[in-house]
Amino acid sequence: MSVVPPASLLEVRDVHVAYGVGVRALQGVSLRVQPGEVVALIGANGAGKTTLLKAIAGLVEPQAGQVWFDGRAIGTVDASERVKLGVALVPEGRRLFSRLSVAENLTLGSYSNGDPAHRREMLERIEALFPVLRERARQRAGTLSGGEAQMLAIARALMSRPRFLMLDEPSLGIMPRLVDQVMDSLRRLHESEGLTMFLVEQNVPAALDLADRGYVLQTGRVVLEGRSEELRGSDLVRKAYLGM
Fold it and tell me: CA 177, CA 170: separation in Å to the nearest integer?
């Protein structure tokens, strides 16, 4: 008896993205993410990782190919509607509203659902995950430390109650001693809620420790995929990203 594989929550099919004339950022990228998985995307600067996240979020329009979410082609769905479907992006550099307070940034994260009960529930969950944000609620976001700002960026994305959370370089600009704290928060979030995550991360050991599977992107193409332990043992990943 053949076994039918579970439907993917996200499926990227042969996506091409170009900037200007002759600058091809993505060249036929295909990948999938199953419900409840944490999947890492590994690659050097300029490989196209951020472009892929933007294409999934609806911030960049592919010239060819299609993005499917929960069995639906979403190529014609704008970014704000994708948030309502359950797609959330924590962008590289965090992009917080620096002059607004922590509490105000979190409130803005719930714009796709104005239900006060929903907002209170999400705030309670976020305060349990990131207690420091409760302590900093009235503080301006621009005065937070790098680690605290990254926690706020993740929390703001969680306020939309996503089913699929994308994170672009969550350890970037954070003191090394705080990287483990941020990664542990993501691990606890996944374990407690089963949230599906797609992670772009320059700290490859940390990414593979968190992820179930991963893809390696080079010059806009997927060149390798596999379970985290398989990638950790591959010559390509060891030499190019693990310094071994």
Answer: 14
Instruction: Give the model's confidence band at 128: pLDDT under 50 very low, under 70 low, under 90 confident, else very high.
Output: confident
pLDDT of residue 117: 77
- Average pLDDT, rounded, for the chain: 89
In a domain, 124, yes or no: no
Residue range(s) defining the domain that contains residue 52: 10-95+145-240
Q: Where are the beta strands (DSSP E) in the chain?
A: 10-19, 23-33, 38-42, 64-69, 72-73, 87-90, 164-168, 196-200, 213-218, 221-227
Instruction: Compute the average pLDDT of residues 87-101.
Output: 89
Q: Domain with 16 in it: what CATH number? A: 3.40.50.300
With the C-alpha atoms ordered 96, 98, 101, 107, is the resulting torsion angle positive or negative? negative
Number of domains in the chain: 1
- Kindly state whether residue 18 falls inside one of the protein's structural domains: yes
